[in-house]
Each structure stands twice: as C-alpha cells, then as structure tokens.
Amino acid sequence: MSASIEIAGVSKVYDGGVRAVDTVAMDIRQGEFFSLLGPSGCGKTTTLRMIAGFETPSAGAIRVDGADITHVPAHKRDMGMVFQNYALFPHRTVAENVAFGLRMRGLDKTTIAAKVKAALAMVELSGLEDRRPAQLSGGQQQRVALARAIVIAPRVLLCDEPLGALDKKLRQQMQFELKQLQKKLGLTLVFVTHDQEEALAMSDRIAVMNGGRVEQVGTPTEIYDQPKTRFVADFIGDTNIFRGERVGPNLDVGKNLILALPATEAQGAAVLSVALRPEKIRLTLRADVAGAAGSSVHGMVENTNFLGGAVLYRVTLEGGHRVLVQQPNAGTTHLFVPGNGVTLEWTPADLVVLKD
Amino acid sequence: MQTSASHSPSLPTARQTTSVRMPGPARHYGRYLYLALNAAILIFLLAPIAIVVVFALNPTPFIQFPPVGVSLRWFEKFFASRDFMQALGFSLEVAVLTTLSATVLGASAALALARGNLPGTRLIVATMLSPLMLPAILTGLALFQTYVLLDVGRPTWGLVAGHTLVTLPYVVRTTLAVLHNFDTRLEEAAQNLGASPLRTFFEVTLPLIKPGVMAGAIFAFIVSFDQFPVSLFLVSPGNETLPVTLFNYLKFDLDGTIGAASVVSIVLAFVVVIGLDRTVGLRSYVKL
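ok -> structure tokens follow
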C-alpha cells in the first residue's frame, strides 16, 4: 500500500562543511506525484537519496506513514527506485532483473514468475525476458528499471531523473506512461528532475529547490502563476522581472516605467520585485490603442522567435527596458516584425510580487 | 586568399595531395614491414618454448641441433621418476593452496582499499604491490630468516605463505582494476530491492568483479607453480617443488627429462587457463 512521507527539518552536511541539504521540510501525500525540481547541485538528488536510505541526514527526521525511518537501512525500507542510468544488473537477464526484489523477499518460484510476467506486460516488454540489459535500447532499459521497481509493490516509488537519457519524443511518451501507471497503481511517487517542463507536465505538486533549500511547494499552476520567490519565477518558464520602489499604489522600476501593482498588494515592502509572464502581455500595433497608464506601455519589436504554436517577441520599451512577450500563433493574431512600434498591455492582477 | 588557393589547381595544392596520399605500393611495403615486425616478436617470444619442445622430443641425451628423431623416452623417464612425480604433486598442491589464499586475501584487500575510505590507501596499495618490485630471492631470504628466528621449521604452510606473498600483488591489482570501473549504483539498486549488504555482495558485487578476481587467480596459480627463488629457501629436503627438483637435477644431469618436465608445466598452465575459461566463462569478460 502506498504511503505518505514526511520530511521534517532534514539537513545533510558533508565532511568539509558543504551543506547539500539545508533544513528541508515537506509532506508528500499518499498517492501523490511529487517532484523535486531544481538546478544541478540544489540538493534534490541528495534529498531523494536520504529518502531511499543511501545517505543519512545530519539533522532532522524522515517519516513514512508517521513511522520514523531516518536510521532504517535501505534494504528494509520497501521503496522502489528508478536510477538515472537505470542501474540494471548487467550480468542478469531482463526477467532476472525484475525478479530480483521478489527473490529477496523470499517468494516462491511460481509466484515470482507470474509477477515478473505481469510486470513486464505492464511495461510492454513481454518477449524480452531472456535478453541482457546491454541488448536493449535506452527506452527498453528504462521500462525494465520501472518494472523492477514496481513489481515489489513498493510503498513509495523514487525516480532520479529517469527520463533524462531519452530523446525528446520517447521522453514525452514515457512521461504519459509513467503518469498513467502511477495513477493506476495509486503510487506515491517522488520524482527528481531539473527539467521544469517535465515537472509541470507530470506532477501533482512540485517542490522547487535551490542551494539546498526549498523555495516553494505547490501545484504546477501555483508554481507557474504565483511564484513566491525571484528564483522560482526565473527558473520556471520565461518571465519578466522588475525591481523597484513603491510609490503609492504603483511601482517605480526606473527608466520612466511605472507599473500599477495589483490591488491585493496595496501594503508591503517599500522595495520589491514583480514578475510578469510573457504570455500575459497583449501586443498591438502602436497606432491602434491608447492604453491605461500603469498597465500599458509603448515599445518597439527588436527580435522575434517563432516557436510554432506561439511567437516570442523581445520588445524594447521607450525607457530602455527589455521585455519578453509571447503571443499565440492563433491565426487571428498579427505577426509582428522587428521594427514594429507596438503597445503592450496587461492586467495589473497578473503582476506577481516576489520575495527576494 | 586561402579559398582561392584551394580552388585553383596550382602547384602547391597538387604537391600537397601527393604527399598526403601515399602511392599504393609504398603503403603495401608499410603493411609488410608491420607484419614482419609482429612475426619477429612472436618468434622471439615463442622460440625458447619451441627449443624446449624439440629438446624434449629429441632422443639423444644432450642438446643437439638439428634433432635426430622423435621419441617420448624423456617423458617416460620423467613420469617414471618418483622424485619428479612427488615434486609435481607437491607443486600442484602448493599452487592450489596459494591460489586460494592469495585470491581470498587479495580480493578482500582490494575491496577494502577501493571502498573502505581507509586512511593512507595509496601507501597500503604500494606496500601490497611491493613484492613485485623486490627481487624474489630477497623475499625468499627474508622469509627464511624469519622462519628460522621464529623456529617454525619449513612447513608446507610456510611455503604457501611465501608464495601468497609474491602472488598477492597480482590479485590486488586485477581486482582493483575492475573495482575502479564499478558502478556503485548497482549495489544501491540491490539494497533498494531488499538485499542485505551481505546478499548484495554475493548477488551483485562478486559476480561483477569476478573477471578481475579470476584473472588474478590465474596469475597466482602460474606464478606459484613456476616459483623458484622463494621456494629455494623454503622447501624442506624430500619435499620439494618441481622447479627446485629440476634445478637440483640440472646440477648433475642435463638430458631431455628437463625438456619433458618443462613441456608438462607448459601444458598444465594451458589446462588451467582453458579450464577456468570453460567453467567460469573467462572469454566473455576478458580477451585472452
């Protein structure tokens, strides 16, 4: 049965004083697809390895379904893990790899054979039982690793960048399959990745990590639409960040640009940063409208980046700020070219105030 | 300017082409030279063995070239000699015991050195490999003096200990080499799947380092079976290894029996290597 995990003030300090993980706290719910997202060196893999039992926390506790497992050795934790490079046993066949965990649990041969067969069928690898890992493609190895981890019906499935080595198309397919499998089995899944798109696409909730700390925990939409810190806003997707001084209900960000703050942010710090997503800005040819002060501004298209489904523009504002603007390629929208004079408009509520 | 030079069929460009591509016959000469050199090296390596075989099969009781015929009389004499047969049996016994002890000790030491986070690892490795650098005769003499000081006599275990000392470096070296490329995540994967550390060792670690351990074991067997300087000091009269018996025999006689004994040793070494290949599938790991 799937379990919940509680990470309570966990730190990991290595010899020499490197603080890889710094008082991390999070609750992972039962049956949840939970991602640890961040750049390399942010502590996400170390956190996962502490959950798996490969590293011992220097401080804090890890609880599974309320029971403290901080000092339980890895082989008694009953967790499945899919490693970054799969870590398949090269001297064993596909079937033997999948059977390994069942054998360690002392199941009898017929039960093992039946379970292995079912697991391989689930990942669509039936017929490859007698191959060696070296004879499989990357995608197939990935599936074997997954089958090996889920066949033991683990309380928690841990994944360390499992899709990192696959090409884009296969990766997307595996994202769908993994997510589907996780929902079908009701697995609690902790997924480590540095790929924000992957995390947004797959997760129920995401913990964004940086420098050993958790910056924000939230659903993909919360993380994307209401980033709490400058790091989160910057790391997830493209964004425009402005920093300035509060002047009444507005924010003066210099170079003749004054932004109207959302009504909910009437009180607060005198100096602050705000984020504005490129796709929240509407772009029109300059002559067309005269926009409202504080939520519209004039500029000139400097660069265009055609993304297929959308177009990304870099616009230089009159005062000199550079802003990214994304417009859908919807057919009805005008495609601008460099040199076009444009008006940018947005809703003040789309500005997100950030903690530094 | 560069582009114009490469496009125009001027003299410098043409000359460059001829100097880079060697004309056909010259390349063939290079290939023949290469083959000839390799053949020379092979002959240099194998000629002494061939001479021993010729010597063993030649019926005359002295080294003679060209051989006057083919006979098995020296083999007959070798196998009929009680001294030689006893020495051969003793040599095999010592080699097997040495292989066992050197392999277990050497592989364990290599594991501890590669994984144990011990202080002074480099120094320990250097010490363990030092018997390779020292002349074996010094090792033999030192052991002899030690045994005399300890007043233990010259027991078989003493000889095996001496052989273990000089064969250990081979096992340590070959095992360290495979451990160096070992992906420790495989062990983590095993533990994650519920294997205790001990179980992980036997299910994952040992099978994967087996090629290195086996290569070391083969070296240990051959080096022990062939060992002379250390044995010379440590054997007791009447209980001698084959190389020592051969040496003693040579002092008084020089006939084809020596050649026959050598051929038997060579064949035995081959049998061991091929036997290990058949039983543990060496070839799938190491190119022999």
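Chain A has two domains: 5-231, 238-354.
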